[in-house]
Amino acid sequence: MPEKKCFYITTPIYYASANLHIGHSYCEVITDSIARYKRERGFDVFFLTGADEHGQKIAKNALAAGKEPQAFVDEVAKTFKDTWKAMDITNDDFIRTTDPRHVEVVQKVFTKLLNQGDIYLGKYEGWYCTSDEAFWTDSQVGEKHVCPTCGREVHKETEEAYFLNCKKYIPQLLKFYEEHPDFVPDGKLNEMINTFIKPGLEDLCITRTSFSWGVPIKENPKHVVYVWIDALLNYISALGYLSNDDTRFQKYWGKNAEIVHFVGREINRFHTIYWPILLMALGLRLPDHVYVHGLLLTRSGVKLSKSLGNAPSPLPLIERYGLDSLRYYMVREVPIGEDGTFTPKQFVDRINMDLVNSYGNLLNRTLSMIAKYFDGVIPSYKEPLAPAVKQAYQDINLYLNQYETEMDAYNVTKGADSAINLINIGNKLIEVEAPWVLAKDPLKKDELAETMYVLTEVLRVGSIMLRPFLVTKAEEALNQLNVPFEERQYQSIRTYGKLSGIQIGTMSQLFPRLDKDKEMAYLADLIDVHTGEHA
Ligand code: MSP
After folding, report:
1. What is the pTM of this model?
2. 296 CA: nearest ligand 1 atom
């Protein structure tokens, strides 16, 4: 057996300033789907998420809530963990920036970079956005003096501060970009180069003295580390970098591991410019990819965000529609690199069309016909003779190959689409072959058997493909078909013919049909209460 290839995948650590909403869940669900897929493909996966718990904004929120910052973030971090549990997120670790294991790494990194001359003490004057905890230059805030990210007003701040010598690393960074055109897929790096690097990247101010809720530096404890530098280091502190036991770090940040960060487009800059610079300064390898996904927006194009108060929690949606429907909608309906809206009509239509009509229905019809025509026993597999059945096997291979290509490129939207297209091979075949007609003709017994057989394979293969998205229902479908353990494994996905003679399990409806008007009204209420927009 060749050694498993290591795959390290991360989401950003979420700001512990408020509860999670469906925008955050979107980021987590697509990343979790990739992590699950990679595990299916035999990779040794480590999937990290966590909470970003330092900074002025969080200190202010804690004060407003009448709590100590630590007590405040303890509560918020717990809600994060509970939400990810409710969404069946398979993270292998949950890092908090207030964890002592993280704080130590931030301090050690600071000392290392200070000693080697990559960090120096200076004075900072700049435009600061309290909400985004980001400093901006004159050209970035424009004449109106607003934050380019959130549009809020910025103010001038001056303080003694330490700086990271970014300028020194620009040539090395540009060379890296050139040599690794896939570092940021879909051309999402060009904007960064044109907006931030070409006009001249300044050294980054990386400490603050105006507040104390952060990691104090050992050399000068009135300074706390800038929240973004603190936060970015989570990706390696969680693996035990610079700790007594760095086995995980050696493994998942090793040169043979595949490393991917998933981030939303508004934090592209930090992950594709400053994070690589930090890693270069530390003499560490860079990630293989920073995958920049789009955002969930309100219908009028505003980002869903808790601080703007326009985003609902995923929990009521899970309660009403089940986790798999929500996960499927997010993955399938919002093209992964683009922004999308959570639209009640699209939600109801997508669930009814793909999960109820295509998937649930195929399972139901197949099982009922096996019960009716074969006493509940899957007929024996034989080389198919009927042209439509032969074609169905070819189409299975086609969509399966397509699925793997898309999922390997992290395109979960197209991956899910290929899986449903594969399921629809079965629905089309039923229309063409009309098993109820074949069943009446004694001469068509073999054709009926091979038709029913391939339908079970469509369902088996399709369910394995859907498993990263439909984390309980796909397995439920395999249970109803009574597929043996071995044939459920991804490595057996292309092994056809092993289901002969299996007594099918108990049938039940996978997804109830959604009443369009009723559910659209419910969803519009839920969403619009937050966005203030009515359909
Ligand atoms: N704490 C920083 C990340 C530090 S990582 C070293 C942060 N936190 S965040 O909570 O504001 O956002 C976390 C992730 O959620 C980001 O990738 C962000 O793009 C994503 N989303 C937040 N709102 C979103 C939508 N409305 N839609 C999709 N993703 C969204 O940034």
Report:
1. 0.93
2. 27
